[in-house]
Specification:
- This protein has 83 residues and is mainly alpha-helical.
- The chain has a domain of 37 residues.
- The protein contains four helices and no strands.
- The protein is elongated and about 60 Å long.
Amino acid sequence: MNQEPSQDKTAAFEQEDLKPEYHFDYSKAKPNRFVHKAADGSLVVVLEPDIAQVFTTPDAVKRVLRALIATMPSVSSESNHTS
């Protein structure tokens, strides 16, 4: 049987279709309509899978973080902005 292995076919296909470099015209780019816009001053964080299993909703994460903040000693805003 003289059948070519599928790996060789894939490699040949990739060599034909892939260019060494692509140039994109970002002036034609549009915002992703599938992403919810974050409120001003918000920070988007991606949870690791083990944490996401425990905190399954954004509200659950916010409740825990606010409870943690309440237990922390207050910090003046001046100490947060060091030069």
